[in-house]
Amino acid sequence: MEDFKNLIVIGASAGGLSAIEQLLERLPAHMDAAIVVVIHVSRKSNGKIIADTFQKYTNLTCAAAADGETIQKNHLYVALPNHQLMVKAGRLVVNQGTHENKYRPSIDVLFRSAAVHYGNRVIGIILTGMLEDGTSGMWAIKQCGGICIVQEPSDAQHSDMPQSVMNLVNVDHAAMLTDIPYILQEILHQPLPESKSIPDELKIEADLTERMMSDINQLKKIADHSDFTCPECGGGLWKIKNDPTRRYRCHTGHVYTEQLLNDEQGSNIEESIWVSVRMLEERRNLLLLMAQEAQHPELAGANRERADELNVHIDRLKGVLSKLVNERSEPAKFSEDGLHNR
What we know:
Blueprint lengths: L5 E7 L3 H10 L7 E7 L7 H9 L5 E4 L10 E4 L5 E5 L2 E5 L11 H12 L3 E5 L8 H9 L3 E5 L8 H9 L4 E3 L4 H9 L11 H12 L4 H7 E7 L6 E5 L6 E4 L4 E3 H36 L3 H33 L3 E2 L5 E2 L1
Parallel strand pairs: 1-2, 1-7, 2-4, 3-4, 7-8, 8-9
Antiparallel strand pairs: 5-6, 10-11, 11-12, 12-13, 14-15
Helix pairs in contact: 3-4, 3-7, 4-5, 7-8, 9-10
């Protein structure tokens, strides 16, 4: 049995290091809780250095997460770069499972495992960050009886992540960063919320992620097969049921929100067209060389004509590329249901 009342899970991305430092400065030295943090950083970053940096701002014991480590009260654990981090039965689970939303570590992965294994004892916090990681995980926390806190989007350096959560989850608190520590202290001194039964689909997905397994029979229980393929491995994608973030999962375990899948498809199309342009330009250049070296004027003229025809196709493809790049560069907007739209 753990020696703490609450498990606090924090997710942040762009601007997150500074935000977490400011949060830690205002936390008490002793809490009836443990904290687990996922922050998006370069895969070449050093988890121990990040933990040591956080240690300068708090009396809580900060450490890089280690697989199998016991979760202790008044401790803060930081996810290792390029590793997924989960919690289960009082211990940390660290592995190199597949990316979720292109992230490893993924906020959703941590939050979902916390929701499944700690239910109404979980306090989830989403701070500054871009895109949507953390929204599905926060929804899972809410479904399992936990408490959801987001940094007020207007206060965040990057508002995407907290705004995405607010659009799809009935959060308990949306607060300025400086107020979140006081909200936490108040929550920690209150009785736990009413416990809820953990949805089977969340249990299954958390188990699949932890075990890094491909179980088609389990996947069928939580998702419907779609007409799309995984941009990363080419496997078939399954659309997760009963999840407002509209996520897709492949047999291997890669997970994409609908918007991220759209972005990845656009990127792959752009890359394929560039390959086509390069091949056409090489053929055009070869035809021009052959025309220059031709001994007969008729053959030289034919090769130049074919090169001119290729130029037309090249210009058309570059026009398509320009349009694609401009569309993908437009700022993302939220649709009526709260999801990103272009």
